[in-house]
Amino acid sequence: MKRTLNPVLYTSSLIVIMLFVASCGTRKYTVKGNTNASKAADAMANLKSKPLYKFITDWTGVKYRFGGLDKNGIDCSGFAYLLEKEIYGVTLPRISRDQANFARKKNYGALQEGDLVFFSFGGNDVDHVGVYLNNGFFVHASTTRGVIVDDLNLPAYQNVLVKSGSVN
Questions:
Q1: Are the beta carbons of 48 and 113 closer than 8 angstroms?
Q2: What's the pLDDT tens digit per position in 72-115?
Q3: Which of 74, 77, 134, 135 is the most exposed place for a label (fewest CB within 10 A)?
Q4: How many CA atoms lie within 13 A of 151 on its CB side?
Q5: Catalytic site residue 38?
Q6: What domains can be seen in the chain, in order of their start residue?
Q7: In the annotation, is 100 catalytic?
């Protein structure tokens, strides 16, 4: 006995398969919203200053070099110095400790895009600086990872944060 396919069932099945295949080809893959990388990307996307966004993306990944002031290598105070000068027209001192003395103290909760955050990893004196972005993120020249956007709320930073301030 010869079996025949039901045309309605056949057509319906074919449509379902085609929709499934088509949907697989257009699926967008995204990073889950709770990772540090996606939060850092959100901080960058929420920058008010497009020149600041461009400056950071142009420098991201440049390796750390003590005393460096170009894309062959840069240190934290050099990065803050160049960023503040190019984006905000403010000429900072070259050394992070002097930059901390130059900045007007500002409470952590009142920080705005372009403000400076200062750290003391080696004792009492300021020995590291970064530039605040938004939502608890800042950009700096890390000694191990180069220029990077980082989460200021991490204990590694909160435990050594000694001052925040404004120069704008």
A1: yes
A2: 999 999 999 999 999 999 999 999 999 999 999 999 999 999 99
A3: 135
A4: 13
A5: no
A6: 7-166 (3.90.1720.10)
A7: no
